[in-house]
């Protein structure tokens, strides 16, 4: 029967804090990217829709003045 020694103090406290900091930055980055992708796509869609409405109104105005 094999006996395994349980590793005590596998990581030092500073390494543990570094790992927690890494996870925090990674999580913040993920949610920031998630928010920005949604916001930028909403922004581009709104700008495209407004441009379309302006062109449509300009075309309608030109047809009425002719």
TrEMBL record:
Membrane-traversing stretches: 20-45
Keywords per UniProt: Membrane, Transmembrane, Transmembrane helix
Top-level taxon of origin: Bacteria
Name of the protein described by the UniProt record: Serine hydroxymethyltransferase
Originating organism: Flavobacterium zhoui
């Amino acid at each position: 029967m094999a006996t395994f020694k349980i590793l005590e103090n596998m990581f030092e406290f500073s390494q543990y804090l570094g790992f927690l900091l890494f996870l925090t930055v990674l999580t913040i980055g993920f949610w920031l990217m998630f928010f920005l992708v949604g916001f930028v796509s909403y922004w581009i869609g709104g700008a495209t829709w407004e441009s379309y409405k302006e062109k449509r109104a300009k075309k309608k105005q030109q047809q009425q003045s002719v």
